[in-house]
């Protein structure tokens, strides 16, 4: 025996272990889900959704226009007034429980479809996205008949029709985050999934049919930004909920100004992940990797700024580089894959542009040796060192597998650097000292603070940002407030 | 004190038969960072009773004054939000004590500003003091009604706490010069925010006197900053300011509210829109927790559990 393998030994290769794409059947084309039925868009407009790992088309999908938005809002209005609002909360709850169960039962289909359409590793869609989506329906199902005990007054009322626009990074999970609390509170929904990832929302619409959900309670409009803008602007919508970029969030806030619509926004971030010299180092390395390379860094709360205490900076970076050489990039359906495909060519262009800016501004770029597939959209995990706070890669959200490393000496300096951003969605703290965790947690201007962990989510845990990361919370009791007139 | 107010053209000198003591009149100034400056613009404007009698000249704050006030509020935020909730409650209760001692002065000013009878003005002042007391009790309780321990599926102690949003601009109600003002300012500062308040443009004098109370009640400088002047000048400057975190549009001119909200979207300020209910009830109704919670952020912390 040659003894235990050392970190410096060559990485052993794994045999491919692909999940079967045959788990899910994808139709050649999909319609809009309006009033309980799938139907083509007015005028028959369609767009193609592709697999970002191969650039192969997956399906043709209806592209909603103004007339379709009108029909969907009308259906949601009728369902709200005649069916969903008058229905006892206990009955609404049972529909949501049914949906949760069917999502669990069809979990493999959802996971494979999500990885095909989004490019994320099957390990993540299987272990994170889909179970959390089901858990979210379960959690809010239980609130539907308990709203008078939720602390929003004796008789909180639903708002009406919720227009919900979601991004492409967690397509199914974001649909669950939007629909579950809205429906539990007694609202009806018109959901607009992202243009590049419409398929799991349409499968969820099918699940709503299977659950026997009354027509019009949930409507799904696939399409591009114009459909989302038309939905936000529709006078029949009482509540707008948006997850996406800060830039679009500002446009929506301006569009909603002067109307009676209620608005919640979950936007971008530039989270600091702060590592102290007493941190449990193996955990911290895993946490840094999970913080920025989870979901290819397509995460609004990604730990994209590593703040590492100067005394351990070199040691942390050595170990981090070694760990990165073991990350496996490739086929999203392979169960061994750590880094999947970038979701779109457009996003890949943006990541490249910002990374080039990082080099141009003087930061040092490093990536592990990494064979990128020939087809599809790929970006190797990347670390920038020598980053200053004024660099674009320290200020702007890259939304890709790119980590900017900065250093600090004192806890006060760590707090000042962490808060030096217009965003305020999340932050991470790695230290062995509980009192220091809480000291930092008090001072970090961010809606979620993870201590000795990162990118953890739970339906009972409120999520949302400070400052330009948006307003309102999703998850937990607080998530109900966004959908109640209290 | 309408009888003591300077009437336009009233002779200030002379030799009455029974010689009365000559009043020392007050100059109504701004309140920024704990000091009482005039507007940097040097401007003032006449403040009149509803009947048109001149009461005094008030400082007409400029956009620069508004920016100075934001700086003062930002500077005060760390200390005020970091103070213990108990301490903030104590300081705010002290404000109520000072208000009580000045009740007669406020009653006279409210009567003059709003054209009320003496009894009606006294009742407004009493309600304003009581409202301040109500909010003074909230700092050490709001986290208990708005926070939570969240039962997540994992080895974490997960808790949510409400925190102040930061620097809040308040467009105070136009008609209710003291009760309305207190109703919008107290909830903002009770929860640890700092405030820039644009007082009622036509009825600003009780607000300036409230600032004098705040200045002598252990409220740290910069926690409340008060501007008097034209709303058309001040409100857009505050709504568009990039270092203001939230804005209360309760007193905004309805015709301007939509544009102010659009300006606020520039840095995604939290916006509390004017509510018809407040005006309808003349600010007399029990306020509830809506205003307290409007300017708080929920922070959720995942703390590991293990040995």
According to DSSP, the number of beta strands of chain A is: 20
**Helix coverage percent of residues of chain B?**
40-55%
Main sheet strand line-up of chain B: 7-6-5-8-9
The number of helical segments of chain B is 11
Strand order in the sheet with the most strands of chain A? 14-15-16-13-12-17-18
Give the averaged pLDDT of chain B, no decimals: 94
- When the domains of chain B are counted, the total is 1
Strand content of chain B: 15-25%
Give the CA-CA distance, first to last residue of chain B.
69 Å
Q: Just name the CATH architecture of chain B.
A: 3-Layer(aba) Sandwich
Describe this structure in words.
The complex is a heterodimer of chains A (486) and B (307). Chain A contains 15 helices and 20 strands. Chain A has 486 residues and is of the alpha/beta class. In chain A, helix 14 links the parallel strand 17 (426-430) and strand 18. In chain A, helix 4 packs parallel to helix 5. The model of chain A has no long low-confidence stretch (mean pLDDT 96). Chain B contains 11 helices and 10 strands. Classes of the chains: A alpha/beta (486), B alpha/beta (307). Strand 18 (448-451) of chain A pairs parallel with strand 10 of chain B.
Topology:
The complex is a heterodimer of chains A (486) and B (307).
Chain A: E1 29-30, E2 32-34, E3 37-39, E4 46-50, E5 57-62, H1 66-84, H2 89-105, H3 107-118, H4 122-141, E6 157-158, E7 161-165, H5 171-184, E8 188-192, H6 199-210, E9 218-220, H7 225-233, E10 239-243, H8 246-256, E11 262-266, E12 272-275, H9 281-293, E13 305-309, H10 313-325, H11 345-360, E14 364-366, E15 382-385, H12 392-395, E16 402-408, H13 411-418, E17 426-430, H14 434-443, E18 448-451, E19 470-471, H15 476-481, E20 484-485
Parallel strand pairs in A: 1-5, 7-8, 7-10, 8-9, 10-11, 12-13, 12-17, 13-16, 15-16, 17-18
Antiparallel strand pairs in A: 2-3, 4-5, 6-20, 11-19, 14-15
Chain B: E1 44-48, E2 54-59, H1 63-82, H2 85-101, H3 103-114, H4 118-136, H5 142-146, E3 148-150, E4 156-164, E5 167-171, H6 179-190, E6 194-198, H7 205-215, E7 224-227, H8 231-239, E8 246-248, H9 254-264, E9 270-272, H10 276-280, H11 290-294, E10 296-304
Parallel strand pairs in B: 5-6, 5-8, 6-7, 8-9
Antiparallel strand pairs in B: 1-2, 3-4, 4-10
Helix pairs in contact in B: 1-8, 2-4, 3-4, 3-7, 4-6, 8-9
């Amino acid at each position: 025996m040659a003894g235990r393998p050392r970190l410096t030994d060559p990485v052993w290769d794994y045999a491919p272990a692909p999940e079967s794409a045959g788990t899910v059947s994808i139709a050649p084309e999909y319609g809009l889900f309006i009033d309980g039925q799938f139907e083509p868009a007015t005028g028959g407009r369609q767009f193609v959704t592709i697999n970002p790992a191969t650039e192969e088309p997956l399906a043709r999908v209806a592209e909603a226009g103004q007339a379709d938005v009108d029909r969907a809002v009308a259906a949601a209005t009728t369902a709200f007034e005649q069916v969903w609002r008058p229905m006892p909360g206990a009955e609404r709850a049972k529909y949501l429980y049914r949906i949760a169960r069917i999502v669990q039962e069809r979990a493999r289909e959802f996971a494979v479809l999500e990885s095909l359409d989004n490019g994320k590793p099957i390990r993540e869609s299987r272990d994170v996205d889909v179970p959390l989506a089901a858990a979210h329906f379960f959690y809010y199902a239980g609130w539907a008949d308990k709203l008078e005990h939720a602390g929003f007054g004796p008789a909180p009322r639903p708002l009406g029709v919720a227009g919900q626009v979601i991004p492409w990074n967690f397509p199914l999970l974001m649909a669950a985050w939007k629909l579950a609390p809205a429906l539990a509170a007694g609202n009806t929904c018109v959901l607009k999934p992202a243009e590049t990832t419409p398929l799991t929302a349409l499968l969820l619409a099918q699940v709503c049919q299977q659950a026997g959900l009354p027509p019009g309670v949930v409507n799904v409009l696939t399409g591009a930004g114009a459909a989302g803008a038309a939905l936000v602007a529709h006078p029949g919508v009482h509540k707008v909920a948006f997850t996406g970029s800060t830039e679009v969030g500002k446009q929506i806030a301006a569009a909603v100004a002067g109307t009676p619509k209620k608005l919640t926004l979950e936007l971008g971030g530039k989270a600091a992940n702060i590592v102290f010299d007493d941190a449990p180092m193996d955990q911290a390395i895993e946490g840094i990797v999970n913080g920025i390379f989870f979901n290819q860094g397509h995460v609004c709360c990604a730990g994209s700024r590593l703040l590492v205490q100067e005394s351990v900076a070199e040691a942390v970076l050595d170990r981090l580089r070694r760990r990165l050489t073991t990350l496996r990039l490739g086929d999203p359906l392979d169960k061994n894959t750590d880094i999947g495909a970038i979701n779109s060519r457009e996003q890949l262009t943006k990541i490249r542009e910002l990374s080039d800016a990082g080099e141009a501004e003087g930061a040092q770029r490093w990536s592990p040796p990494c064979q990128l597939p020939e087809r599809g959209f790929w970006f190797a995990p990347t670390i920038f060192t020598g980053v200053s706070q004024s660099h674009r890669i320290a200020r702007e959200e890259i939304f890709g597998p790119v980590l900017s490393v900065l250093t600090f000496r004192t806890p006060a300096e760590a707090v000042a650097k962490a808060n030096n951003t217009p965003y305020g969605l999340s932050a991470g703290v790695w230290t062995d000292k509980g009192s220091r965790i809480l000291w930092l947690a008090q001072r970090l201007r961010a809606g979620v603070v993870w201590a000795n962990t990162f990118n953890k989510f739970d339906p009972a845990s409120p999520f949302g940002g400070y400052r330009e990361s948006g307003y309102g919370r999703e998850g937990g009791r607080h998530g109900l407030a966004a959908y109640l007139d209290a | 004190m309408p009888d003591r107010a300077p009437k336009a053209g009233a002779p200030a000198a002379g030799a009455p038969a029974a010689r009365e003591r000559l009043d020392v009149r007050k100059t109504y100034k701004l309140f920024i960072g704990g000091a009482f400056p005039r507007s940097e613009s040097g401007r003032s404007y006449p403040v009149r009773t509803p009947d048109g009698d001149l009461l005094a000249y008030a400082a007409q704050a400029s956009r620069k004054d508004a920016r100075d006030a934001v700086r003062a509020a930002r500077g005060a935020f760390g200390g005020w939000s970091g103070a213990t909730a108990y301490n903030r409650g104590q300081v705010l209760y002290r404000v109520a004590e000072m208000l009580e001692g000045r009740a007669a002065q406020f009653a006279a000013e409210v009567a003059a500003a709003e054209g009320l009878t003496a009894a009606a003005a006294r009742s407004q002042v009493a309600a304003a003091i009581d409202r301040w007391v109500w909010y003074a009790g909230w700092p050490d309780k709001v986290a208990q009604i708005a926070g939570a321990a969240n039962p997540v599926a994992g080895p974490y102690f997960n808790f949510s706490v409400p925190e102040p949003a930061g620097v809040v601009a308040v467009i105070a109600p136009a008609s209710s010069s003291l009760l309305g003002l207190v109703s919008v300012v107290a909830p903002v500062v009770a929860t640890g925010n700092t405030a820039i308040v644009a007082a009622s443009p036509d009825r600003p004098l009780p607000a300036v006197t409230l600032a004098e109370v705040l200045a002598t009640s252990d409220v740290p400088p910069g926690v409340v900053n008060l501007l008097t002047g034209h709303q058309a000048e001040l409100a857009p400057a505050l709504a568009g300011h990039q270092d203001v975190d939230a804005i209360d549009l309760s007193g905004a001119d309805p015709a301007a509210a939509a544009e102010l909200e659009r300006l606020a979207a520039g840095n995604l300020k939290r916006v509390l829109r004017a509510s018809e209910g407040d005006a309808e009830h003349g600010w007399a109704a029990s306020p509830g927790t809506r205003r307290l919670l409007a300017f708080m952020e929920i922070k959720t912390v995942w703390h590991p559990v293990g040995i």
